[in-house]
Amino acid sequence: MVQTVLTVKTVLMVKTVPVQPEPQPDAPLLGIRKTLQKKSIRIAAAAVLAVLCAFGLVFWMGGAKTPVTAEQAKIWTYNKKENEANLCVLEVQGENVWLELEGSFNWGNPSVTVRAVRYTFPHIHAALEGLLGTSASDTSIAVSGTQLLTVQCADETRYYRDGQQEDVVTQEQGVFEKG
Predict the structure, then answer these.
(1) What is the rounded CA–CA span in Å between residue 105 and residue 99?
(2) Secondary structure (DSSP) of 62-95
(3) How far apart are CA 100 and CA 83, in angstroms?
(4) Which end of the chain is more exposed for a tag (fewer CB within 10 A), N or C?
């Protein structure tokens, strides 16, 4: 006996049938999520910019100065001897008034110029000085008795040599006049 095996091959034909997907419950949330991410990036960038601006404003306010008049500065001079050198010391005694050195100080210079100023925001300036551990403001300056010390105020410019006032140039109507 001989056996015959018949094999039947079945061919399946696959046809794509369009199927409507089931509605995704979080599909609208994806759009909302992207929008919120964009907004949060913008908010973070705005916050960083605001912090930088605040720091810049604080440092600007800490250094903002206003010139003061000679009367407000309450200038006082005296001579003193230190290490056998005759010095002329000039002090400003007005409230929150400081001397700002113009250029750099050198004992060999024939003249030294300072400006009498008041910090526009003295409390912020003091806080910055304390925070940074610096004191860039002085209420007095000592120069050699031979150096000409020029003090610029809002209303006049005074000249001192050897502790004595030599000359005053006043400002009237925008023009400096020698007095």
Answers:
(1) 13
(2) HH-EEE--HHHHTEEEEEEEETTEEEEEEEE-ST
(3) 26
(4) N
Please check whether residue 103 is in contact with residue 113, taking contact to mean a CB–CB distance below 8 angstroms: yes
Burial of 26 (0-12, 13-18, 19+ CB in 10 A): exposed
Which token pair is 70?
């000679």
Measuring CA to CA, which residue among 156, 155, 122, 157 is closest to residue 139?
122
CA 154: distance to chain centroid? 24
Amino acid found at 150: T
Question: Considering the entire predicted model, what is its pTM?
Answer: 0.57
Q: Could you tell me if 61 and 121 are in contact, meaning their C-beta atoms sit under 8 angstroms apart? A: yes
Of 112, 158, 160, 77, nearest to 169 by C-alpha is 158
- What whole-number distance in Å separates Cα of residue 169 and Cα of residue 147? 18
- Reading the block at residue 46, the tokens are 């705005």
